[in-house]
Amino acid sequence: MTADILIAETPRLQLVVPSPERAEEFCAYVERNLDFHRSSMPSPPKGFETSAFWRDRLAERFHHHKAGRLHGFAILCDGQLVGDMSFTQIMGEPQHSTVLGYKLDRSVEGRGYMQEALGAALAWMFDERKRHRIEANVRPNNKRSLALLERLGFIIEGYSHSYLRLDGRWCDHVRLALFNPREVQVIPSSLDLSLALGKSMSQA
Ligand SMILES: CC(C)(COP(=O)(O)OP(=O)(O)OC[C@H]1O[C@@H](n2cnc3c(N)ncnc32)[C@H](O)[C@@H]1OP(=O)(O)O)[C@@H](O)C(=O)NCCC(=O)NCCS
């Protein structure tokens, strides 16, 4: 039996690399949140709603975590899965960057859990994985996600047209980034949000 790998604990949450033993739990989580997550994730691959799929995916992610290729974390509250996040596209020299994605269980939205979990995860990525830059991409109409990233100190860098195919169509995204606060550097200023979002708040 493989145990979760504990990454960080916060006042209310634990951040772990989930063991493949959590396959059933992941399966139930994605199934009950299909509608909630639909507009922010690519079309699910075949078998996505089966525990066999999750057993394989979690085993693969466990392996990737140990090799430093990808970090997929589960957010637990009292041991129960309430959200997840991933750091993908981990680039070495000279970028030292990664791309962040995240989502909550609908039932716990509005409690500050994601801010608390991301606070710990970002610190881990900067301190342990020595990232210089962490990027996130958000649909312009996803106000909660934009507000969350701004609270965490991300700055808006630009607007990417037709960036990702989600729920069957190409969608524009706002690109944001956070830089390692442990490094001595000039922190760039954010683009004006209204300028960045000006054109397609309604269509994207
Ligand atoms: C994006 C997403 C994670 C944001 O969730 P969220 O609950 O708004 O973010 P947080 O967990 O940081 O919670 C902040 C909210 O909790 C409230 N809150 C309550 N108690 C709190 C506490 N103790 N500490 C901090 N905030 C608290 C805040 O006031 C804020 O609510 P408000 O915006 O209505 O004022 C969530 O909407 C989601 O999973 N959406 C679907 C998937 C998705 O869009 N992913 C992102 C793709 S880019």
Ordered list of secondary-structure elements with their pairings:
Layout: E1 5-9, E2 14-17, H1 23-32, H2 34-38, H3 51-67, E3 71-77, E4 80-88, E5 97-104, H4 113-127, E6 133-138, H5 143-151, E7 155-166, E8 169-179, H6 193-197
Parallel strand pairs: 5-6
Antiparallel strand pairs: 1-2, 2-3, 3-4, 4-5, 6-8, 7-8
CATH class: Alpha Beta
CATH architecture: 3-Layer(aba) Sandwich
Looking at CATH, the homologous superfamily is Gcn5-related N-acetyltransferase (GNAT)
Query: Nearest-angstrom radius of gyration?
Result: 17 Å
Q: What is the molecular shape?
A: globular
The total beta strand count reads 8
Strand order of the largest sheet: 1-2-3-4-5-6-8-7
Helix content: 25-40%
Poorly predicted residue ranges: 199-204
Biggest β-sheet, characterized?
8 strands, mixed
Percent strand equals: 25-35%
CATH topology tier name: Aminopeptidase
Ligands bound here? coenzyme A
Give the rounded overall mean pLDDT: 92
What order do the SSEs take from the amino end to the carboxyl end, as H and E?
A: EEHHHEEEHEHEEH
Q: In terms of structural class, how would the helical and strand content be classed?
A: alpha+beta
The domain count comes to 1
First-to-last CA distance = 44 Å
**Count, helices:** 6
Q: What does this entry look like structurally?
A:
The chain contains 6 helices and 8 strands; from the N terminus they run ββαααβββαβαββα. With 204 residues, the chain is of the alpha+beta class. It has a single domain, classed as Aminopeptidase. Strands 1-2-3-4-5-6-8-7 form an 8-stranded mixed beta sheet, with helices on both faces. Helix 1 packs across helix 3. Bound molecules: coenzyme A. Coenzyme A (COA) binds next to helix 2, strand 5, helix 4 and helix 5.
